[in-house]
């Protein structure tokens, strides 16, 4: 055993930095979850802070917490509802383009927004939606209507989040589908044409079934993320005017924990969402085993 | 076979829709570029859509003459370079080490790594740990925590396992140790993969604003994206002009009234976006490959 381990000493040496880094930045924070059950102040030691039982979970009885949960689910479900079919549609459309230069151009352009930060997207939104001189509001006023305060209203917050999410990631998410389409046997299309199937019939009976495995995997993989609505996107767009609908679990933890110093309570909220997402991931894996014959691990 | 009328209609509809999509992606950048190259007061009147009407470089002079922005840029470049190189290095080493199937305890190590993808302590314990390690408010907070990417490691691992074993065995027969195998076989063969993962890592570093916003309070350590995030909600221009060293530009006070917060903002965001827009065309071939190798098939 030792001789064998010695034989692999170089490999262990190579793996060591990864093991240490995971220990420092993943495992120690996992042990830090006990803060959820302690009265911890920054500067004191986690291990010597007094236990307080379930006191930090008092947020479960607060109306504000449930508003945040509702906001999170609302946005994530809407994002899923629009965000899941969009890349499939786009991939099908791109696939129909016969002109190869145009096709390459469309693909390059559609991937582009993925490479910009949500901050840049927030600036774009500001440039287009702002009250004074924003392009959209110029159009709105030109049409004779009252300008709309898109970024500071509760009604417009969700549409703005959904639309900007679609704008940024739809193109990027087509990559997998387009790759799956290229693996479909071209002879199937030839045969369908001979039998007189039109374009739409070909899509329905050949392309869609052909990419079905990819669709189901993407579907399964997206289930765990239903509980998290990226802080990255929401935080830059959040302000005091739209707070009521914009505050999601991630931003709630951020504010109560890092900004207001309720470490115990924020850790408790974080623990709750970690547990829920763990349950979702495990369920998803079972689901995938049943549907695809193999799990994700 | 002649295309029937319905198909021609569908075909042109698709071309129209796709063109519209391209326009919706490209136009915002053209618009922001036009606003940033236009005199602010003039742009505020509206009507600048595609080309600047009253052309000026003043907005850029002010942005690039700003000490804080220049410094933020240096931080961004430094962390992107250091973070990408060190991140790729560690990730590659771990993946290569784990690619030896005979390695004792391999399964245990793999589970140890996998668990971190399934469960995490959440933001607050993570923050407390950064604090305990003394990383808050240091440059290292940008580099160390992200140095090992579990996801990239698995992608890399799968790629290395796809390299024919005979190649490695014959090298070992000739007396090559693992370090030599890594340097002379694995790295040369993994170049496209390393390029793709390196690109994703670099973009991640370039675009990260969160670390700078919440784990760093020292203004001289913030990267460009965090500066942008702070400026996003700014309501007056002093946020940008406060520490301007380009006195010459400021001295032209007759022009000062031409500057608006919006035109300055657009210049700043263009300055942060331009590098990506410039390198993007050259990197495309790598990232599509990278996504596909790292994707679900397997």
From TrEMBL, chain A:
InterPro entries, per the entry: MetI-like, MetI-like_sf, UgpAE/MalFG_permease
GO cellular component: plasma membrane
Membrane topology: Multi-pass membrane protein
Compartments it resides in: Cell membrane
Organism superkingdom: Bacteria
Keyword field contains Disulfide bond: no
Keywords from the named record: Cell membrane, Membrane, Transmembrane, Transmembrane helix, Transport
Name the record gives this protein: Binding-protein-dependent transport systems inner membrane component
A Pfam match: BPD_transp_1
CDD domains: TM_PBP2
GO biological process: transmembrane transport
Family: Belongs to the binding-protein-dependent transport system permease family.
Chief location category: membrane
Domain ABC transmembrane type-1: from-to ranges: 69-284
Chain segments annotated as transmembrane: 12-37, 73-94, 115-136, 148-167, 206-227, 262-282
Automatic annotation (TrEMBL), chain B:
Family: Belongs to the binding-protein-dependent transport system permease family.
TM regions (residue ranges): 12-34, 72-96, 108-128, 140-160, 262-283
Signal peptide interval: none
Membrane topology according to the record: Multi-pass membrane protein
Pfam families xref list: BPD_transp_1
Domain ABC transmembrane type-1, chain residue ranges per copy: 73-277
Organism phylogeny: Bacteria, Bacillati, Bacillota, Bacilli, Bacillales
Organism whose genome encodes this protein: Paenibacillus mucilaginosus 3016
GO terms under cellular component: plasma membrane
Subcellular location field: Cell membrane
Keywords, in A-Z order: Cell membrane, Membrane, Transmembrane, Transmembrane helix, Transport
One annotated GO biological process: transmembrane transport
InterPro entries: MetI-like (IPR000515), MetI-like_sf (IPR035906)
Name the record gives this protein: Binding-protein-dependent transport systems inner membrane component
């Amino acid at each position: 055993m030792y001789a064998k381990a010695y034989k692999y000493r170089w490999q262990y040496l190579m793996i060591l930095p990864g093991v240490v880094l995971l220990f420092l930045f993943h495992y120690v924070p996992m042990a830090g979850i006990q803060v959820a059950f302690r009265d911890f102040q920054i500067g004191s030691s986690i291990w010597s802070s007094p236990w307080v039982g379930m006191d930090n979970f008092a947020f479960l009885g607060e109306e504000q917490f449930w508003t945040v949960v509702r906001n999170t689910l609302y946005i994530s479900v809407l994002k899923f509802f629009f965000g899941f079919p969009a890349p499939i549609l786009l991939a099908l459309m791109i696939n129909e383009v016969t002109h190869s230069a145009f096709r390459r151009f469309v693909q390059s352009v559609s991937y582009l927004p993925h490479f910009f930060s949500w901050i840049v997207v927030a600036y774009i939104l500001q440039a287009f939606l702002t009250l004074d001189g924003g392009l959209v509001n110029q159009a709105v006023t030109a049409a004779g209507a009252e300008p709309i305060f898109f970024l500071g209203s509760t009604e417009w917050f969700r549409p703005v989040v959904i639309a900007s999410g679609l704008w940024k990631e739809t193109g990027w998410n087509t990559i997998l589908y387009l790759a799956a389409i290229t693996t479909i046997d071209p002879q199937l299309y030839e045969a369908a044409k001979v039998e007189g199937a039109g374009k739409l019939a070909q899509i329905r009976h050949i392309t869609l079934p052909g990419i079905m495995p990819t669709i189901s995997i993407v579907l399964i993989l997206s289930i765990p993320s239903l509980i998290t609505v990226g802080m990255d996107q929401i935080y830059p767009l959040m302000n005091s005017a739209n707070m009521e609908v914009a505050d999601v679990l991630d931003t709630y933890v951020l504010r109560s924990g890092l900004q207001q110093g309720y470490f115990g309570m924020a850790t408790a909220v974080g623990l709750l969402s970690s547990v829920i997402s763990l349950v979702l991931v495990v369920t998803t894996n079972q689901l995938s085993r049943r549907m695809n014959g193999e799990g994700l691990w | 076979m002649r295309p029937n009328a319905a198909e021609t209609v569908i075909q042109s509809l698709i071309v129209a829709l796709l063109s519209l999509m391209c326009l919706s992606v490209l136009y915002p950048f053209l618009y922001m570029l036009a606003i940033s190259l236009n005199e602010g007061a003039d742009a505020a009147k509206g009507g600048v859509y595609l080309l600047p009407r009253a052309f000026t470089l003043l907005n850029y002079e002010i942005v690039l003459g700003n000490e804080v922005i220049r410094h933020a840029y240096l931080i961004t470049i430094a962390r992107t370079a250091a973070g990408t190189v060190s991140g790729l290095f560690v990730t590659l080493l771990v993946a290569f080490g784990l690619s030896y199937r005979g390695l004792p305890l391999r399964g245990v190590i793999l589970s140890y790594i996998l668990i971190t993808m399934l469960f995490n302590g959440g933001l607050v314990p993570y923050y407390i740990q950064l604090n305990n390690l003394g990383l808050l408010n240091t440059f290292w907070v940008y580099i160390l925590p992200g140095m090992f990417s579990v996801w990239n490691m698995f992608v890399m691992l799968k790629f290395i396992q796809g390299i024919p074993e005979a190649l490695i065995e014959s090298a070992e027969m000739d007396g090559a140790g693992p370090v030599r195998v890594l340097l002379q076989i694995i790295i040369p063969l993994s170049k496209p993969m390393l390029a793709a993962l390196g690109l994703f890592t670099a973009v991640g570093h370039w675009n990260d604003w969160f670390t700078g916003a919440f784990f760093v309070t020292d203004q001289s350590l913030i990267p460009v994206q965090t500066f942008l995030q702070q400026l996003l909600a700014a309501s007056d221009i002093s946020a940008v002009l406060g520490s301007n060293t380009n006195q010459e530009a400021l001295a032209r006070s007759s022009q000062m009234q031409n500057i608006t917060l919006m035109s300055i903002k657009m210049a700043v965001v263009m300055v942060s976006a331009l590098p990506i827009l410039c390198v993007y065309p050259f990197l495309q071939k790598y990232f599509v490959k990278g996504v596909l190798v790292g994707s679900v098939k397997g």
